Amino acid sequence: MALFSCNFFSEALGLTTSMTVILPQTTRAQIGMDTLSGGSKHPTLYLLHGLSDDHTIWLRRTSIERYVAPLGLAVVMPAVHRSFYTDMAYGGKYWTFVSEELPALARSFFPLSDRREDNYVAGLSMGGYGAFKLGLSCPNRFAAAASLSGVADVAGGKTRFPQDFEAIFGSEPVEGSRHDLFALASGLPGSSQASPQLFQCCGTEDFLYRENLRLRDHLKELQLPVTYEEEPGSHEWGYWDRKIQRVLEWLPLPAREAGV
Fold first, then answer.
1. Which helix (H) or strand (E) holds 6?
2. Among 10, 22, 201, 242, which residue has the fewest nearby CB atoms (within 10 Å)?
3. Confidence at residue 260, expressed as pLDDT on a 0 to 100 scale
4. CA gap 62, 181 in Å, rounded
5. In the CATH scheme, what is the code of domain 2-255?
6. What is the pLDDT at residue 194?
7. CB proximity list for 38: less than 8 A, separation 6 or greater
8. How confident is the model at residue 115 (pLDDT cuts 50, 70, 90)?
9. Hydrolase: present as a keyword of the record (predicted)?
10. d(C-alpha 225, C-alpha 235), whole Å
11. Complete edge-to-edge strand list for the sheet that includes strand 44-48
């Protein structure tokens, strides 16, 4: 595998920002790595960080590079700060950045596929919210979206992080808006036929567990294609390290879908 630390200018944000990228590399002599590179344009996982972290955290807390090596899967990990993947009321246009500019720039820099069936998004906590927001808002671009211990009910964040909430959403009502995962799921045209595959998990001791249950039930009521898993666990990296491996097993990779 090849690892890139990429600094670049964002027109959407008006500043220089960063992403970390893992690319498949077929090797014969690398010790301890089972690697695969399956073509000129790589299937891609956009992997999103949580509220208190940055684009380096998945590499620092998990073995994500080793986990994706045998899959021929590229991984793009952008920095979005404490933005909730949103065009902030008092801050940067991080939704425009992550939903429009980032994929276009990443594909201009690296050999990444633009086919829907080759693109996936996953994240933890705030990043789990961002992953489902991307999957439900842009279902024509992503074949799958995975939320690990995700913030399922973002409107509830007003009491958990009031200063961030004001900077992100201002006075705009969140419930029922384009920021609300429940509303986004309800608004999918054609319901399950239009949705990406969804994976949702949360530890039973996590402070976000109850709201994840409510979102799970909502998705099932809409008959959306959701795989839900729970097990003992809290809001911590031991849990997320295990579950990102499960997400990678679950992803509908083209070779896997073709039975190769």
1. strand 2-10
2. 242
3. 54
4. 27
5. 3.40.50.1820
6. 77
7. 24, 72, 255
8. very high
9. yes
10. 25
11. 2-10, 15-23, 74-78, 44-48, 119-124, 144-148, 197-203, 226-231
Match 């990444």 to its residue by tokens: 112
Report CA dihedral (121, 125, 126, 132) to the nearest 10 degrees. 40
Q: Which residue has the tokens 């979102």?
A: 215
How far is Cα 99 from Cα 243, in angstroms, rounded to an integer?
Answer: 24
Nearest to 219 by CA among 247, 204, 200: 200
Q: Is the pTM of this model over 0.85?
A: yes
Q: Are 156 and 207 in contact (CB under 8 A)?
A: no
Q: How far apart are CA 66 and CA 84, in angstroms?
A: 28
Instruction: From residue 257, give the alpha-carbon distance in Å to each of 45, 142, 143, 153.
Output: 16, 15, 12, 32
- pLDDT surpasses 70 at 243: yes
DSSP string, 127-184: HHHHHHHHHHH-TTT-SEEEEES----GGGHHHHSHHHHHHHHTTS--TTSTT-HHHH
Torsion of CA 20, 123, 84, 106, to 10 degrees: 30
Amino acid at 200: Q
